[in-house]
């Protein structure tokens, strides 16, 4: 099958974007892995498939696959690239677009400066909803939130656990550059207390309005930025009393801004989204 694709990136988190608005596209996990493969394919952290909305109040659906071939619930950087994509490919001329993922309905807005603001939907802190098996653990209350003491590789790591539609486990570290992301990240990602695995975040608090963040992503491993991970870190930090309602997040690949006024308010993420190149591939 000959396939047209667009390579995009949002703060260094990179994607292969495919248009399935005119003709259904059913990729096998092997084909998805091939697209994500940085040597035998195009190379990307995730693969995004743009589909028709299917309902009057939904402009598009967008499906997200990690480069492992697994379909996932949400991708923040991908959402920003998605809205740039539908504009650049003439699929809409609306600056505000409603899009449905596996389990969320998102409102995306293309700003005049080219950045994109996404209403990422509400965070979910209830352990069972993340899902996280908290059985037998005594959480430590910090501010208005909790940290869970989770045994990892012989040590105890204090994790803030939150879902942004996809699962996140965030810990505070003194310096993200020296954090054990490559070694401890996969152990948290695959930890048995996360039945659907988890994205492992490492947050360094620079001030109440600025953090540095590294994320060992479920499936893709460490990425240069993780949009849902930035949201998860900020909302957890706000609840724990460490952060204010608007935070700039320094990821390795770029900067995101997250805003959350607390329970009952949307989590807004603003950041860059760029097309890198267009191409065709024989799958
Ligand atoms: N690896 C994530 C999906 C991509 C999320 C990330 N790329 C983002 O920007 O939110 C997961 O398995 O939940």
Automatic annotation (TrEMBL):
The active site is at residues 75, 226. GO terms for molecular function: diaminopimelate epimerase activity. One of its GO terms (biological process) is lysine biosynthetic process via diaminopimelate. Keywords: Amino-acid biosynthesis, Cytoplasm, Isomerase, Lysine biosynthesis. Pathway: Amino-acid biosynthesis; L-lysine biosynthesis via DAP pathway; DL-2,6-diaminopimelate from LL-2,6-diaminopimelate: step 1/1. It is found in: Cytoplasm. Signal peptide: none annotated. It comes from the Bacteria. Its EC number is 5.1.1.7. The keyword Oxidoreductase does not apply. It catalyses: (2S,6S)-2,6-diaminopimelate = meso-2,6-diaminopimelate. Pfam families: DAP_epimerase. The record marks 168, 217 as: Could be important to modulate the pK values of the two catalytic cysteine residues. Substrate binds at residues 13, 46, 66, 76-77, 166, 199, 217-218, 227-228. Belongs to the diaminopimelate epimerase family. Catalyzes the stereoinversion of LL-2,6-diaminopimelate (L,L-DAP) to meso-diaminopimelate (meso-DAP), a precursor of L-lysine and an essential component of the bacterial peptidoglycan. Homodimer. This is Diaminopimelate epimerase.
């Amino acid at each position: 099958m000959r396939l047209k694709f667009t390579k995009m990136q949002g703060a260094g988190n990179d994607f292969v974007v495919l248009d399935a608005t005119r003709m259904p596209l059913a990729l096998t996990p092997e084909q998805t892995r091939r697209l994500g493969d940085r040597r035998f394919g195009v190379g990307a952290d995730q693969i995004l498939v743009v589909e028709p909305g299917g309902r009057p109040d939904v402009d598009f659906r967008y499906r997200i696959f990690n480069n492992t071939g697994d379909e996932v619930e949400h991708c923040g950087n991908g959402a920003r690239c998605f809205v740039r994509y539908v504009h650049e490919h003439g699929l809409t001329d609306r600056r505000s677009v409603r899009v449905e993922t596996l389990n969320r309905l998102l409102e995306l807005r293309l700003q005049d400066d080219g950045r994109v603001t996404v209403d990422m939907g509400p965070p979910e802190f209830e352990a069972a909803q993340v899902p996280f098996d908290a059985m037998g653990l005594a959480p430590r209350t910090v501010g208005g939130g909790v940290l869970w003491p989770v045994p990892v590789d012989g040590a105890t790591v204090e994790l803030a656990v939150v879902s942004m539609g996809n699962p996140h486990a965030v810990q505070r570290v003194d310096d993200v550059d020296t954090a054990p992301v490559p070694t401890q990240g996969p152990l948290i990602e695959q930890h048995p207390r996360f039945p659907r695995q988890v994205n492992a975040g490492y947050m360094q608090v620079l001030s109440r309005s600025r953090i540095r963040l590294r994320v060992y992503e479920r499936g893709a491993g460490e990425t240069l930025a993780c949009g849902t991970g930035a949201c998860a870190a900020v909302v957890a930090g706000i609840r724990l009393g460490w952060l204010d309602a608007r935070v700039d997040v320094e990821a390795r690949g770029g900067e995101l801004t997250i805003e959350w006024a607390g329970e009952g308010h949307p989590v807004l993420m603003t950041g860059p989204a760029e097309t890198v190149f267009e191409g065709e591939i024989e799958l």
